[in-house]
Amino acid sequence: MGPADAAVPEAEAGGVARRAAAPPSSLSPSRAGDFMQCPLLYRFRVIDRLPEKPSEAATRGTLVHAVLERLFDAPAAERTPPRAKALIPGQWDRLRESRPELVELFADDADGERLARWLSEAEHLVERWFALEDPTRLEPAERELFVEAELASGLRLRGIIDRVDVAPTGEVRIVDYKTGKAPRPEYAEGALFQMKFYALVVWRLKKVVPRRLQLVYLGSGDVLTYDPVLADLERVERKLLALWEAIRQATETGDWRPRPTKLCGWCDHRAHCPEFGGTPPPYPLPLGRAASPVQGRMGAD
Fold it and tell me: Model's pTM, two decimal places?
């Protein structure tokens, strides 16, 4: 999910005082992805809650998601490209009001040229959506749906689904908008992990296996679909349980190892990373006796 993919918890934004450290109590697709990418990144975001600077790309994704969500407030016949693009200025104003730290994105843009280009790029992404889906023929059952389910193990899974469509026959389709480009085929499975995560949560909540998972890539104009079966969701559940056990062990031992990749170049935390000569902040949890994450009930993912 777009906004749900934002890396920084809202309480961290704009230099707001961070909440006291606590063992993680739930898992979302984004945070699961963080741990798989780099355990130390997971620690910095979830345990230390280090602040991160807003990025133009992530903020544009949040803006586009908001526009596509709000467009469905209009009657079907009025869901047109001009109507969608006309929503952008107002949604940008609302976004800045809710997240004051975004002002710094264009603080040095005195003539407004960079902001205008950025907003134009958002318009192009919104307009491309109409070539991929026809909103006049869609009536989503849910938009920006928060879901949460607790597994038998006690692990809580949570996230926000961009759109849920339900057919007259009861079949469920989960849709996620991506403002980037579609991955190469060899990386498609990684892209589908988030969707299978959501499908697992829906299955656990509704006892229904979604008929289709659909990723809409506005950056490249591609649509990736996958029709899951129960065995897929059971595999994902086993993977998440193993992942959670690794997180539990790292939480108790304080052993969060960096995993260098080409993505390090975009990381906000290199100053604290040993791979770049940095030192992590003092570990804020007691070692060896941290509460089991599945027992916690405070602290989001």
Answer: 0.86
